[in-house]
Amino acid sequence: MTIEVSEEVKKEIFQLIATPGIEIEEISKKTNLDQNTILKILSEEYLKCNLDHGKSLCCR
Fold first, then answer.
1. Phi-psi bin for 21: left (phi > 0), alpha (psi -120 to 50), beta?
2. Mutual orientation of helices 7-17 and 35-49 as an angle, nearest 10°?
3. CA gyration radius, the chain
4. In the Cβ-directed half-sphere of 44, how many Cα atoms lie within 13 Å?
5. How does DSSP classify residue 19?
6. Helix (H, G, I), strand (E, B) or coil at 13
7. Rounded CA gap, 15 and 54, in Å?
8. DSSP structure class, residue 34
9. Residue 27, number of CB atoms within 10 A of its CB
10. pLDDT at 1
11. How far does CA 1 lie from the centroid of its chain?
12. What would the pLDDT profile of 19-38 be if each residue is shown by its tens digit?
């Protein structure tokens, strides 16, 4: 079962996760999404942006 999440909600999730002290439980309450959905959105964004690329460059 796939839940469609609007771009506005995704943007709100990214803003909240970037805020120091905010945890997944709080984001879940504010967006009315379950924690697994939020983690899936974050992992998809992580893979899409290939955030390990910078790490591999600086650790050589």
1. left
2. 90
3. 13
4. 10
5. S
6. helix
7. 21
8. -
9. 21
10. 46
11. 19
12. 999 999 999 999 999 999 99
